[in-house]
């Protein structure tokens, strides 16, 4: 019998000072049995970092949502889709291969990857030259220690605040706060 995903609910209050975006999001995350709390929380942070595109790109008329993630490799970890069904933003977390990223760039206006694992530098050195031609792609590095700290905030029902200022995000709940500053690789 296959293991089922675990459902997490998150009420996320975003204060993105950099982009003037302030909103509350009621989110449902399905955590695949092989997904860690760390990866799930990096997905949540990635969504918060890019939520301003809902207003900036879609003028409020779009859907910001989590994809099937590990359950379906052809589905983004998170995405922004406008009212016509067009993928405006495709977000991936981890260390994806070059072919799925190339495919994602053909399906979406922009693709953003957030690498967070301690082996991310090795992954990046091995794949960097294969990704240089992908103009729609951005690659960001989440510091390993901060990603591990995010896992401490994971609960089945979460009340989270995300404050984004000067390119850094602080994710907070009653369990504490985790500041992280993504580093842009591409």
TrEMBL record:
It comes from the Bacteria. InterPro entries: Restrct_endonuc-II-like, YaeQ, YaeQ_sf. SUPFAM superfamilies: Restriction endonuclease-like. PANTHER family: SUCROSE PHOSPHORYLASE (PTHR38784:SF1). This is YaeQ family protein.
């Amino acid at each position: 019998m296959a293991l089922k995903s675990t459902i997490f609910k998150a009420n996320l209050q975003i204060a993105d000072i950099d982009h003037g975006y302030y909103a509350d999001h009621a989110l449902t995350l399905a955590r695949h049995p092989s997904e860690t709390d760390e990866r799930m929380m990096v997905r949540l942070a990635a969504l918060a970092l890019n939520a301003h595109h809902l207003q900036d790109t879609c003028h409020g008329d779009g859907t910001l949502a989590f994809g099937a993630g590990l359950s379906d490799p052809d589905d983004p970890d998170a995405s922004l889709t406008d009212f016509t069904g067009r993928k405006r933003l495709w977000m991936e977390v981890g260390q994806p291969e070059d072919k799925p990223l190339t495919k994602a760039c053909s399906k979406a206006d922009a693709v953003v990857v957030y690498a967070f694992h301690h082996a991310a530098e090795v992954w990046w050195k091995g794949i960097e030259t294969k990704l240089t031609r992908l103009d729609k792609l951005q690659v960001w590095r989440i510091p390993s220690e901060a990603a591990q700290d995010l896992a401490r905030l994971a609960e089945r029902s979460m009340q989270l605040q995300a404050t984004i200022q000067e390119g850094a995000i602080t994710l907070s709940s009653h369990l504490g706060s985790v500041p992280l500053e993504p580093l842009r690789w591409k």
